[in-house]
Design goal:
By secondary structure, the protein is of the alpha+beta class. It is built from twelve helices and eight strands. A hairpin with a 2-residue loop joins strand 5 and strand 6.
Length: 244
């Protein structure tokens, strides 16, 4: 049976059979066999998944046992912070300053970052270096955004905070390589991505995000958590409304 997931991932990334073969230093016929349904060796599975930016377990769900996936996923946990406010003050800038290819931010507001001129300088510099920067903010007209404000006890204030963040980010909106979108999805977690690392700020009913736990994750071959969060980010991005 053909591997439709592998074929789709290659099409989405614009990667041809010959290009993937060149990157992995294998015969193009080998890649054709993988697309046709043959399962490659573990080292090739990991290399393909890393190049296409998806999880190995997504492309070949039957190749790993549940125990292997569970063990690898546990290894993806770098650190857990009981509350976001407990994170080291310099961690945010250092985290984004390490980006080489991709920066992704999925929040409703994220005002603490928008107000940080040092953080904005990092985004400008990284975009100039060719890093792809994508930022998703909550749509002020979204009922989900307004509901989050009610749950936190700040009601309409959250809408004002989104508008404030948009004003603060305005200098970045004309920079090549930086793209903003608005979304109205239910935000179960705020996601901050740098290449294969994530900071996942969980959301808890009636508590502000700063009081909720943060998971620091790094993708590990065979792991499932990072790829799941990244796939969620991509789905929200596809639903997002480009900002004029």
């Amino acid at each position: 049976m053909a591997n439709d997931r592998l074929r789709s991932a290659m099409l989405e990334k614009g990667v041809s059979t010959s290009e993937l073969a060149t990157v992995l230093q294998v015969d193009p016929k080998s890649v054709e066999r993988w697309v046709g349904g043959r399962t490659p060796y573990r080292r090739h599975r990991y290399a393909v998944a890393a190049h296409l930016g998806v999880g190995e377990e997504y492309l070949w769900p039957d190749a790993l046992t549940r125990d292997q996936i569970a063990n690898a996923s546990e290894s993806e946990i770098v650190n857990i912070y009981p509350h976001r406010w407990m994170m080291p003050s310099d961690m945010w800038r250092n985290f984004f300053d390490n980006a080489e290819n991709e920066i992704g931010i999925l929040v409703y507001v994220g005002l603490s970052l928008a107000e940080d001129e040092g953080f904005q300088r990092i985004l400008r510099r990284k975009a100039g270096d060719g890093v792809n920067v994508r930022i998703l903010l909550g749509d002020p007209e979204s009922e989900n955004v307004k509901q989050r404000g009610i749950e936190e006890g700040i009601e309409s204030t959250i809408v004002a905070k989104v508008h404030n963040a948009l004003v603060l980010y305005r200098p970045l909106m004309s920079i090549d390589g930086v793209e903003f979108r608005l979304h109205g999805t239910t935000l179960y977690n705020s996601i901050y991505r740098v290449d294969d690392q994530l900071l996942v700020n969980t959301h808890i009913y009636s508590f502000p995000a700063s009081h909720a736990p943060v998971l620091h994750l790094r993708r590990v071959a065979g792991g499932d958590m990072v790829s799941t969060y990244m796939e969620s980010f991509e789905r929200v991005w596809e639903l997002g409304r480009p900002l004029d």
